[in-house]
Amino acid sequence: MKISESEVQKMKLKGKPKCLTCGNPLSFVYDGAKGYTSMKCLRCKQEFLVNLETLEVKKITKVC
Ligand SMILES: [Zn+2]
Q1: pTM value?
Q2: Residue 34 C-alpha to ligand 1 middle, in angstroms?
Q3: 24 CA distance to ligand 1 centroid (A)?
Q4: Would you kindly state where each structural domain of the chain is located, as residue ranges?
């Protein structure tokens, strides 16, 4: 499955959840997204849980 960049740009962007640690954008969320997803910051490697409906970002802490 493929989608062109211009087709993606036509989609309505809902927001860009950002890393709570370094402020790096984690990903682009498009309109209609629901539920939760986990994302890893490419810069500081911290993992986050993102609520796709509210764009709320929560840091996933590791229990050791
Ligand atoms: Zn980060």
Answers
A1: 0.85
A2: 23
A3: 5
A4: 5-59
